Amino acid sequence: MEVASAAVRLAPEEAALYRVLGAAHYRLGEYGLAQEALQQALSLDSAHGLTYFLLGCTLEKLGQAEEAGRHFRRAAAMDPRYAPAGQPSRR
Prior knowledge:
mainly alpha; 69% helix; Serine Threonine Protein Phosphatase 5, Tetratricopeptide repeat; 0% strand; single chain; 5 helices; 91 residues
């Protein structure tokens, strides 16, 4: 967590660092902070399915199933690796 936070302070324009920070918060069960970091990542770069997937996981933990589903669908549309098992993504 300390390394990710320090990296974000050094390069606040890097979406990938916010993705890492969001994942670290998620792993610690800090879902509100994970959501903030992942939303910042999307505001900087919305071209990565992984960010949508991680935000979907976070929103699910926060009890926001409908919003989570929207992010999961977006992730799957961007990258077939994030499609639910047995369902191909639609590009």
